[in-house]
Amino acid sequence: MGVSATTPAPEPLNSTATNTTPSHQNPTEVTESGDSRQVGIYLARQLGSRLNASALATSNEDYEQGRALIGDEYDVLLEQYAAVADETELAEAAEQFNLTREQQLEIIASAEQLNQTAAAYQAAVENGNEEQARALARNIVQNASELNQSTTTLTQQYNALETQTNLDFAAAQDALNTSQQRLARAAGAVASREFTNTNLTVRPARSNLSATEQTTVSGQLTAANGTAITNATIRVGVGADTITTQTDANGMYTAAYQPLVVAPNASTLTATYTPAPASPYLSSTAIANVAIRGQPATSITVTNATTRAGFTDPVHVAGYVTTTAGEARLPAGVPVTLQIAGAQLARTETTANGSFTLHTPLPEQVSAGERELRVGLAADQFILESSTTTIPFSVTSTPTVLTVELDQTEADDQNVSIAGTLTTEGGEPLADRSVQLQFADTPVATVETDATGAYRTTLDRATIPEEARTLTVQFAPTGSSLEASTAEQTLPVSSMSPFGRSTLVGGAVTLLVISGLTLVWWRNGTVWGQLWSRVTGGNSSAQPAATPREGSSTGAPAAAVASASDSTSSDFIERARTTLDAGNPDAAVRFAYAAFRARATPPDADLPETHWEVYDRWEALDRSDSSQVYQLTTAYEQAMFAPESVSTETARTVVEMLPSLAGDSDT
Questions:
Q1: pLDDT at res. 579
Q2: Helix (H) or strand (E) holding 563
Q3: Chain segment 320-350, per-residue pLDDT in tens
Q4: 157 membership: H or E segment, kind and range
Q5: Domain locations in the chain?
Q6: Which end of the chain has the lower number of beta carbons within 10 A, N or C?
Q7: Where are the compositionally biased (Polar residues) regions (predicted)?
């Protein structure tokens, strides 16, 4: 006999007993490693005490107290015990304390439910409601049977816990067994009052059941006194592969049974009678030993199927399964799979009439081209013969759209912020995809897209080759129906511009890429000439190459440059208005800024400028429209780099000021 753990009430955690041995110390106050085992013994006694007290409360039908004793405070003790167990050999005991508690809680719930059902049954009897009384009585019989099984399991848990902890749980087991026996006797009395036992027989025409033809199965259902039970439903079959039949006026039944969805080594034929809730009879079962012979062939017929789909498009296949053996019923519960290129897309089971429906989105990991959908009967574990059928299927490729934006704040001269999105052509975000960043065909980083298809990273400018000017971002999937895509941006690596700002070309600074059009700036040089004169103090020797002028033997004629600028600016003004009317304020602002830049950048400007450098140059000329340029530049920066879109009102204001801003800049 082990150490007793049967104290009526648990010892408090902060016990102040005068015994100074570690087994009586508060475990939260024991810090020396040598005390770990003694703390474990102390906590085990506390846990055992609560289990015993809970069992006694349950036996006395105090279910609330029974639950409370192994509730929150038990959890605290168990957590402390588990922490100590990690340092000792008590880990298995900690798990066993938890398993025992969970099983005991299940028994408490079952016993309480059984008592409540018994009270409802008694009320139905007193009110003369026979049908309700029988239905409740059947629940009592069923619940009592389940409680008996649970009590047996709990006894096994307690035995294991006694072995691991050397604690004595005899009191708990005796209390729970007494409670269970009391409830079982009550359930037996209810069953005797309300129900009549039944006898069921089953006789197959032969012991070797054929899977390729039907076998006659017969039997009889009677009450305990031999009275035939008529119009009762009998279920006959092997395992879950069953059919139903009815008893006649003599309680006899006959069924033609052919095993289909059964294991090849199945050996038991079962007949079962399950009465209705209000029936005066108890259920009964009969079995016969059999063997299964033969293997019926199967065929799959597809009645409807998708023949063409792309990434995430729905793929639908419907049909039915039949056997070729005799007049066999259509098999139910047979697994059916849908595959493409060796990969399983979906799985289901046939219904009672042998039909099936498979529905799944087409995954990315199927490359574009002509393929086959393969529908198969996954009947390896059954006596049925497997079969497959194929359907021609076209996988269409899905274009993708990759964007990239560059930005660098004035406060950070060393890093380049890179961001963009990856979507399908239809705008569906592509999450958890890898995009590769490279300069001059040299990979520098790989970034994953987030749930919205966006990606963002920062590169140290010192790691970028000095001669590198073009950032290329690539999405290049393999074994996928998604098409590859590429985006580029130009990035000069010179550290500072003549105007004191860090030079970074991003978005639409030197190269503006809109709707696939790359625009290279040609400008009238008057404004640039004025600005250069101010910066250099009028030193003509410091000025860059001369601005091409009318009549010059080199460069584009001034009239031609102005004409090209006017045409380009007008085109972008019109596109800004169109996109604004279409409800895209960000794009409208970008086109508006492109129209302005078409007239603002000098033709001989070989140094690229950011949008704020352009504004600085413009403001340095003391132009009257500088405030409007500032408003346009601010809106452009938000449209290009901010997570929030430009408001429609702001975009409309910017577009309406374009005719003056994008006009002749020589004044």
A1: 84
A2: helix 558-581
A3: 998 876 555 677 888 999 999 888 999 999 9
A4: helix 130-165
A5: 3-194, 198-293, 298-395, 397-465, 494-661
A6: N
A7: 1-33
